[in-house]
């Protein structure tokens, strides 16, 4: 029986089977990387590769990125590889996030042009961040004052001394408002996975993490250093507790017998544990911890040698010097002199001078 025009008019129209309903087009999240000479390649790759993987896994341009240097030239990574960039500072109008990636403590120092650009981005609402020692770049520009930040554990003492208004942490990465900083290395991967989580959901972040054989996405509270058990390959709980006490009390060393009592052992029992698992006496192990800390302070800070000695639990500079020389075969003053000789000049570079 023929169908009337009226009947046909009431029949709902069907969409073609291959027609896809599309929502509003969301522009990609634009991320800039400001690279400085000797930047760490691992940390940089760990930050940019999650963005590429997110785009590939979804088949969408969720993220876009551009690489910058101060003058737009190629830049040398710490491993010697030369990296081409997309342009110089001031050449990009709109960025959602700008991450400074640096591997030296003088990156951005006395550079008015870089500081001016970063401040302008901050005023325009761009999220600013630092990878590895990139926190120095932001701090020199005054963009971390009063905020928490993360950077590599080796540089924490020097950074804190140079920028007392910035609150440093030992976390692998920190989010403080529109500032994001990470300690470098693989911590950059976790920080960028957090960005993906916030924008596109945890499921995508998990998929990206699995692409890089990264079994657990670490959070902001994860520590940079390995746990004592993993670092030293020991499982004895009382030995681990004793070592933890030593690491926490290096400025005012505790007597070995007191540490032993706190872990419910006699001093002799603790000595046997150290000899069995670490092939050292408790006192020698404790001394080495304090000397290692002192060496880091000599290399990373400008504190007077006497202050370094006191901060590491030595009663006098002469006692400290004797112990240091026995361990490293040179005096603390020689260590400091060598570090100062190798340290890059803090004065303006020729390019920085021309920009002013």
Q: Could you characterize what this model shows?
A:
- By secondary structure, the protein is an alpha/beta fold.
- The protein has 2 domains: 29-212, 3-Layer(aba) Sandwich (Rossmann fold), CATH 3.40.50; 228-341, Arc Repressor Mutant, subunit A (Orthogonal Bundle).
- Helix content is 46%, strand content 13%.
- It has a 7-stranded mixed β-sheet with strand order 5-2-1-6-7-11-10, with helices on both faces. Strands 3-4 form a two-stranded antiparallel sheet. It has a two-stranded parallel ribbon with strand order 8-9.
- The longest helix is centred in the last third of the chain and has 19 residues, at 282-300.
- The model is unreliable at 1-21 and 345-356 (pLDDT under 50).
CATH homologous superfamily (4th level) name of the largest domain: Class I glutamine amidotransferase (GATase) domain
Question: Strand order of the main beta sheet, please?
Answer: 5-2-1-6-7-11-10
Under the CATH scheme, the architecture of the largest domain is 3-Layer(aba) Sandwich
Give the SSE string: HEHEEEEEHEHEHEEEHHHHHHHHHHH
Overall morphology: globular
CATH class of the largest domain: Alpha Beta
Largest sheet: 7 strands, mixed
Count of helical segments? 16
| Helix content, binned percent | 40-55%
Unreliable segments of 5+ consecutive residues: 1-21, 345-356
Question: What is the number of domains?
Answer: 2
Task: Indicate the proportion of strand residues.
Answer: 5-15%
CATH topology of the largest domain: Rossmann fold
Mean pLDDT over the residues: 88
